[in-house]
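Give me structure tokens for this 471-residue protein.
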Amino acid sequence: MPYPNCSALPVVLLSLALANIAAAQDTAPAPSADPKAPAPKHFLITDYGAKADGTTLNSAAIQKTIDTAATAGGGVVEIPKGTFLSGSIFLKQGVELFLDDGAVLLGSQNISDYPKQTTRIEGHFQPWRMALVNVQNMDHVRIGGPGQLNGNGAPYWAAFRSAPRGTTNLDVERPRLMFVDHCADVRIEDIALQDSGFWNIHLYHCHDVLLQNLRINAPAGSPSTDGVDVDSCQNITIRKCEISNNDDDIALKGSKGPFADKDTDSPPVENILIEDCTFGSGNGVLTCGSEATIVRNVTVRNCVINGGANLLTLKLRPDTPQHYSNITIDGITATGAGRFLNVAPWTQYFDLQGQPSPARVIDHVTVRNVTGSFRLLGSLRGTVGDSISNITLENINLAVPTTNFTLGPTENVTLKNFAVNGAWYQLPTSGPAAALPKARAPATPATTAPAAAPAVPATPAAAAPTTATST
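Here you go.
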């Protein structure tokens, strides 16, 4: 839609945005393969006893294939067409995993087929079930092919849904689909990830990662099926992916609790690029939290929302020092039923550990060039003690059933060419910050798991105001 002329962004915001994009553009790892090197040797899992009948447990046979390839100096472990049931498998240095067209690595529905080890989960370390595919302490990781990883997650979802009200994620054991831990130069491409029992892809303490052409899907009612969890990582590119699930689409994570900023196991999440992706359902195309400390230099651009996903979710934990900064969202087309903004307190089972509530800061967030429909405009509000500043919403043209928007104390929130339902939008009067809530005790732990959108608005009248600022 044509907009009236408006003033340029302030120099500082423009500089930050350009620096953000420039940093993010270079996040994809450079190709590491020598084009003159001989093709790697392929190791077919059926040559080592794997059976494609969908019922034989193939964990040992697949692991034997991986171990043989590693001993031979590396190569490609190939999963051919067919359905191969498996529990946890562990890649080794120099070994790639490739799923042929029609290949399905099907996760076991017996939780005991996923060994319990001390692992990273929800911002700390504890004994927890390992993923279907595990990659740890490796460089030059390659996982791909047109096949599918299928978590077979229905019984895990049912176990969580039947647990007592107030049950936390970690009260009911469920396996992740893929866990990549302390790795560099990672490429995961082309595969489909379906029906994970828990999180789909969990990246922890990794850098220089490319996720490309992935199809990640979990149905409504599948709890905690995050698409990609980027935990304490740097230089991550997520490109040309399709993600739809029942929780965060892409979540940026770190540590939690009043001493989280002193956690040396949780370096900042920074230099993240998400581009040319399509999102269906989910709690947030981009979510910061539930456990996160420092997140900075993030770009989301040229993406589509065609389901119920929120555009931006920023969770503010009253028990955790947090700083979310230099986040740019640019070029979004939405025909969905989610929230435009979901910036709000997040208070599930927080624990101040006898400490005062630490500082939480959001600054230099730009959302621009967004058109289409949402169910709600949402909220921009924190808890008492939060600082939210330098927010720019520019070239926005939305259709929503209601124009209600929750605004808390903020500084320098600027609207430029922001239209809602065919009229220029003005910020509502700012209300108070949310009060610091009382901590709640978790429920008694549960047993472990068993074996059509409105049209885009017309162009507003040229005489309408172009800028609104809230302080």
